[in-house]
Amino acid sequence: MSGTDTFLGYPRPRGRPGIRNRLLVLNCTGLTDAAARRVAFALPGSVFASTMYGMGMVGADAGFHTAALAGMATHPNCGAVLLIGADRTRLDQMIAVVEAAKRPFVALGLDETGHDALLLGQRAIAEGARLLRDLSLERPVACPVSELFLAFECGLSDPSSGLAANPLLGCIADWLVDSGGSVVLGETIEWLGTEDELARRAATPEVGETLKRVVADRLALAHAAGVDLLGTNPNAANIKAGLSTIEEKASGAVLKAGTRAIQSVLAYAEAPATAGLHFMDAPSYSPESLTGFVASGAQMILFTTGLGNSYCSALAPTLKLTANARTAGSLSHQIDFDASDVLAGRSLQDVAQDLRKRIVATASGQLTFGEILGEGAESISRFGAAI
């Protein structure tokens, strides 16, 4: 075995192993957000995720939102979950999900405390302390890299992203898929102009047609809203850095996908049914995009940037990398992996070998700067109006 065949992870009763063993404080309703935040603050080492929305969501929007909450509640990196909410119906939904996953949990509702948010917090802190103590007894074990599910993102890109950083992730995608693992990338509008080429790589004609359709749907959504994608995506910072059109940005962004067959086009927060390479139809704004990946079960996110982008997921360690030597030097407490050697003449495969080692080290417990500095958050996307 090579040094990149296994990582140290935490097996779960169902699903992939975690690369972290965190207590998730998951707030399920907007009315209890503040109380749940106080609870997470009082439990060092816990992870906080929340929604500010409640019973007014309907249709597909409600379905996506519930799926995202469920995906976070059962995420591989979540060793136990403390569910907090005001809406008993939603709390019961999450209880059923966590019970089916056989994950340790405690659920507390505002109605159980006479709608006293302070009392709710006190009880939750006590229950969370017990869950944290139990988690501290668990130890990681060797797991094959075929159990890894990585998500790829890019943000505040510049020409170095498309020339080196994203092709580097393409090498990682091919390596992991060939090893039996899984990869997902999203930002649907950033496939624009490449969708026909991507469709030719689809595992089935149906997947190819779906891929082209979701791009067309996003473009139609922008046009219907009167949005001119030039100046919006890429944004002003991207344009100033040298990426003038969305098609130009997309041609570099999709290089993250490597060269293997595309197995499916996932809905937002949908878990892949098989191993391999997957695309997710999702917004391109990083907070929403990353949470879609996390809710689908991705244990780690590899995030390329040209200019620097500090945003991270709370649940999935987010490994930041750049091929811009100036950015790597000026943001030394943000960039986890400096890939600028690629543009200095070092071979892509040599740098990819170093990155594989860093991925395994991170999966085995090495912290990212985002984890150390507390940059992580989760933001569930919205898909419609509320009543």
TrEMBL record:
Sequence ranges assigned to domain D-galactarate/Altronate dehydratase C-terminal in this UniProt record: 145-379
Highest taxon of source: Bacteria
Domain D-galactarate/Altronate dehydratase second: 9-117
Signal peptide bounds: none
GO molecular-function terms, A-Z: hydrolase activity
Keywords for this protein: Hydrolase, Lyase
Similarity section: Belongs to the UxaA family.
Protein name: UxaA family hydrolase
Organism: Nitratireductor kimnyeongensis
Higher taxonomy: Bacteria, Pseudomonadati, Pseudomonadota, Alphaproteobacteria, Hyphomicrobiales
